[in-house]
């Protein structure tokens, strides 16, 4: 059995490889690109978080105004106090309490708190009666003031009851 010896490298034959300088430059570029990607991802996450928070506020505002509108239109009488307002009909008495940064709705069976800042409730009355035909609700959402108007048609029963009860 014959064994062969490995050839000795000649001075003209070199292994191809990267120098330490080339490896360091590549490493610096890689770290820079990864850092920029992480910074971009962080900014995207912050933006999404802010968007989620603001959209949650608007959804709560929409849910609250839809509920107030439904209750107001179904009501036969409306009572306005400095920090609350109430709607009554034959079956329900619904009270909305205005707190500094929320509105609490209580219908006798359940209490729901809406994180909305209600600044003012302005009633508009039908002719010279005490029947509220329109409400203006002023909210503050993300530093902006938004006024929401609700109007309802008064039916003959409401006008008749008002005449019988109050004589006007």
Describe the structure.
By secondary structure, the protein is an alpha+beta fold. It has a domain of 113 residues. 39% of the residues lie in helices and 32% in strands. A hairpin with a 2-residue loop joins strand 3 and strand 4. The radius of gyration is 36 Å and the shape is rod-shaped.
Keywords:
168 residues, alpha+beta, three-stranded antiparallel β-sheet
Q: Topology, pairings included?
A:
Elements: H1 20-74, E1 77-81, E2 84-88, E3 93-99, E4 102-106, E5 111-114, E6 117-125, E7 132-141, E8 144-151, H2 156-166
Antiparallel strand pairs: 1-2, 2-3, 3-4, 4-5, 6-7, 7-8
Q: How is this structure best summarized?
A:
By secondary structure, the chain is of the alpha+beta class.
Arrangement of strands in the largest sheet? 1-2-3-4-5
Distance between the termini: 128 Å
Q: What is the chain-wise order of helices and strands?
A: HEEEEEEEEH
**Overall 3D shape:** rod-shaped
Strand content: 25-35%
Percent range of helical residues: 25-40%
Count up the helices.
2
The overall pLDDT average reads: 84
Q: How many DSSP-defined strands?
A: 8
Structural class: alpha+beta
- The Rg value, from CA coordinates, equals 36 Å
The main pleated sheet reads as: 5 strands, antiparallel
Poorly predicted sequence stretches spanning 5 or more consecutive residues:
none
